[in-house]
Specification:
Mean pLDDT: 84
Helix content: 40-55%
Oligomer: single chain
CATH class of the largest domain: Alpha Beta
Strand content: 5-15%
Bound molecules: uracil
CATH architecture of the largest domain: 3-Layer(aba) Sandwich
CATH superfamily of the largest domain: Uracil-DNA glycosylase-like domain
Strand order of the largest sheet: 4-5-6-7-8
Number of helices: 17
Low-confidence stretches: 48-52, 268-278
């Protein structure tokens, strides 16, 4: 009779992506120190030959202690789509019980294999963040619209990446459908379910035109490298990307456009304005597209900890354009600019200067809240030049779409965001500059500077200057 200790143990997972099931079974087997060569891993419904293996017994209370790096590597690699990964993962975890630094040994062939899998999963997640495009589905009953996207990941990443999309689109109702799984976010609840079909997801919506306009305007023909471009945006994603329709034509016309750009740059230099001109898009992009792009922005690390991006608000044809620094704590939670204490100071000053906030377009140089956690409090931190520059394309797109007669920058960060370079506020405050785009620019203080001034006399003086800058804006608007 076969020795029970040498008989194979059959473990059946519910599905190809039953990672939770694998984790549970692996813990139980590791607790009993079952060697990898005794375990047969199978997925329910698969065709593997299991003859002679005995079904796994449930229940074991023994604990296992694994190095954190090993758990993290196994967790990431478990999302890979290789159906043969379960025995590899179990072997790795079993070895990690004794070899505590195994996960950090790049010379080990098994570790190398798992690291490759981890990298492939990470890359797939990155593609998902970049290439998911939601289509709007209006509610016939007049309720909020829903947004639905089709995506084809290489690996089992859909549920794993849900938190990324929840952070980005917390206030929307949305679903991401893939061939194997789908996720749905509605009223603050995430639900996962089976996959779907591409045909069931709307293929075109009003945003698509806007996406195409945006993409065409940021496309730099001087930088076009077809191989790099197709590596970054593999052709398999093209059919789901509205902007991809433009790519072949853009590549074809790139060299002619580079020649035109070079000629224009020369002409600009001759006119002496190249230095002062902020980076602009070739053509204005419609405001709904800008808002959608801002909400999904990952240009810099600030998007991670923030609740949401805060795009500007106000009429798209406003004649007055006000730029602040970045959303604060309240703005981050509400998703609207200038609704906290600095907003109150601003509202009061606008009113005193005879300017109507409702008729102005209000935005920030940086669209995500930058903060430092102190206990439960989130303390404001100033954005770096990199943060401002990473965000400036949104500010410039908003500015270009609104094309205001008068722009008021509140503080040095707003000025940098608009001009694309640092200019000492003390040098230009109190003056009026002509923007290359045609409107007037009035650089002034940030309202929170006034809030911070302790000395009553100094505050009065600075408030007076702030008011006189805003009054000058009103005069220009009236002229
Ligand atoms: N400070 C800013 O600069 N912008 C806001 O939206 C709020 C506070």
């Amino acid at each position: 009779m076969a020795d029970p200790a040498s008989r194979s143990i059959l473990v059946t997972l519910d599905a190809e992506d039953d990672i939770a099931g694998f984790r549970k079974e692996a813990r139980r087997l590791l607790a009993e120190r079952v060697p990898p060569d005794r375990v047969v891993w199978r997925v329910a419904g698969s065709e593997r030959d299991l003859f002679g293996a005995e079904p796994a017994r449930r229940a074991s209370k023994a604990e296992v202690s694994l190095p954190r790096a090993a758990v993290e590597l196994a967790q990431a690699a478990a999302h890979h789509s290789d159906p043969g990964r379960w025995p590899l993962l179990y072997t790795f975890l079993h070895r990690s019980l004794g070899e505590k630094a195994l996960a950090d040994n790049p010379a080990d062939p098994l570790v190398r294999r798992l690291r490759q899998m981890e990298k492939a999963v990470r890359r797939d997640a990155h593609k998902m963040h970049a290439f998911v495009r939601f289509k709007e589905v209006e509610d016939p009953g007049g309720g909020p619209s829903r947004y639905i996207a089709w995506f084809e990941p290489d690996h089992h990443i859909v549920e794993r990446e849900a938190p990324f999309f929840i952070r980005r689109f917390a206030n929307m109702h949305w679903a991401i459908v893939t061939p194997r799984r789908s996720i749905r976010w509605e009223d603050g609840q995430l639900r996962a379910g089976p996959g779907g079909r591409r045909e069931d997801v709307p293929q075109d919506d009003a945003f698509d035109e806007a996406w195409r306009a945006y993409y065409a305007s940021i496309f730099n023909p001087a930088r076009v490298k077809v191989s790099a471009m197709t590596a970054e945006m593999p052709r398999k994603y093209w059919r789901n990307l509205p902007e991809a329709r433009l790519i072949p034509e853009m590549i074809e016309t790139a060299s002619a456009r580079v020649a035109t750009m070079a000629a224009n740059a020369l002409a600009d230099e001759e006119r002496g304005i190249a230095e002062a001109a902020p980076r602009r898009m070739a053509a204005p992009v419609a405001m709904p597209a800008i808002r959608a792009l801002v909400r999904s922005c990952t240009n810099c690390p600030l998007h991670g900890p923030a609740t949401q991006a805060v795009p500007g608000e106000g009429p798209a044809d406003a004649r007055l354009f006000l730029v602040g620094e970045q959303p604060g704590d309240m703005e981050d939670l509400e998703g609207r600019p200038f609704v906290g204490p600095a907003g109150q100071v601003l509202n009061q000053a606008l009113e005193q200067a005879g300017l109507d906030r409702e008729r102005a377009y209000l935005t920030n140089a940086v669209k995500h809240f930058k903060f430092e956690l102190r206990g439960k409090r989130r303390l404001h931190r100033s954005p770096s030049a990199e943060n401002v520059d990473a965000c400036s394309e949104w500010l410039l797109a908003e500015h270009q779409a609104v094309a205001p007669a008068v722009t008021v920058t509140l503080g040095a960060t707003a000025l940098r965001g608009l001009l694309g370079k640092s200019v000492p506020l003390a040098r230009v405050r109190g003056t009026q500059l002509a923007l290359p785009s045609g409107g007037a620019l009035i650089p002034t203080f940030h309202p929170s500077y006034l809030l911070r001034l302790q000395d009553e006399g100094a505050r009065r003086i600075e408030e007076g200057k702030f008011l006189s800058d805003l009054r000058r804006a009103r005069e220009l608007l009236a002229a």
